[in-house]
């Protein structure tokens, strides 16, 4: 379990996160949802260890990791722009994640991962020869090859659309299930959050507005902000959102 206790963060005396308290269970997918500037990316970076919190505690499996370095936490992230190396082909990018790793995939496990993500036909391609969905799968493979204890995804679908987006959504859910991998997603899109996640964390101005299942968010929004943010963003009635949720979680 990952637990945040009274996590606070300021930038230039502006409160970005204010006494965040949160528990994320092993193996579940949690989406952090909120408008631009709400604090969701800051929270993701604190969990990753990229930036320090000002006060509070971050615990993983009961151990305080607040001052543990990003490298030693054993978490890993797929960035919004994928951060692939253009001088390496797809396979080189995937294998790069295993450099200097003591707990990464064996060769057999890596081959199985490549097949699971249907990347074998693309291994020799340069990065500029890959589609957006293929780049996303290469980035996922590179990250998963390090056997992260927690997988962090920063706007994983923002550069995708249509069938490719739906395919990657399915892949992310399958990865979490296959590896029992706790997965934390930052998104600004309510539809993505509601259809991909076991629980949704809605953040507004550094505060938790609601933390619950998609069904709870849809049927019992905690406050007017949650209701208006969800409905305004999707521009459809709540019942239709629920039907979408049911379809995607069937």
Question: What would you say this structure looks like, in words?
Answer:
By secondary structure, the protein is of the alpha/beta class. The protein folds into 2 domains: 1-75 and 148-223, P-loop containing nucleotide triphosphate hydrolases (Rossmann fold), CATH 3.40.50.300; 89-147. Helices cover 38% and strands 24% of the residues. The chain is built from 10 helices and 10 strands. The protein has helices at 40-48, 70-73, 90-96, 107-116, 132-144, 162-178, 190-196, 214-219, 224-234, 238-248; strands at residues 2-11, 14-24, 29-33, 55-60, 63-64, 76-78, 150-154, 182-187, 199-204, 207-212. It has a 6-stranded mixed beta sheet, with helices on both faces. A hairpin with a 2-residue loop joins strand 4 (55-60) and strand 5. Helix 3 packs parallel to helix 5 (132-144), helix 5 packs parallel to helix 6 and helix 7 (190-196) crosses helix 10. The longest helix has 17 residues, at 162-178. It is globular, with a radius of gyration of 18 Å. The mean pLDDT is 88.
């Amino acid at each position: 379990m990952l637990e945040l206790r009274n996590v606070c963060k300021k930038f230039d005396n502006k409160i970005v996160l204010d006494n965040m308290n949160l528990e994320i269970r092993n193996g579940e997918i949690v989406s952090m949802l909120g408008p631009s500037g709400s604090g969701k990316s800051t929270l993701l970076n604190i969990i990753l260890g990229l930036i320090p919190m000002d006060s509070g505690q971050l615990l993983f499996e009961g151990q305080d990791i607040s001052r543990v370095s990003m490298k030693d936490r054993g978490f890993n992230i797929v960035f919004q722009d994928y951060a692939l190396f253009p001088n390496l082909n797809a396979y080189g990018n995937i294998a790069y994640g295993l450099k200097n790793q003591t707990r990464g995939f064996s060769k057999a496990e890596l081959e199985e991962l490549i097949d699971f993500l249907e990347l074998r036909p693309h291994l020799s391609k340069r990065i500029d020869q890959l589609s957006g969905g293929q780049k996303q799968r290469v980035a996922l493979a590179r990250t998963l090859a390090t056997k992260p204890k927690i997988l962090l995804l920063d706007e994983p679908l923002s550069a995708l659309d249509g069938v490719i987006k739906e395919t990657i959504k399915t892949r992310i859910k399958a990865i979490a299930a296959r590896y029992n991998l706790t997965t934390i997603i930052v998104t600004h899109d309510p539809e993505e959050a509601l259809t991909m996640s076991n629980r949704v964390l809605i953040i507004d101005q550094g505060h938790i507005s609601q933390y619950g299942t998609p069904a709870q968010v849809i049927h019992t929004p905690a406050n007017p902000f949650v209701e208006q943010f969800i409905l305004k963003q999707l521009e459809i009635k709540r019942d239709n959102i629920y039907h979408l949720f049911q379809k995607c979680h069937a």
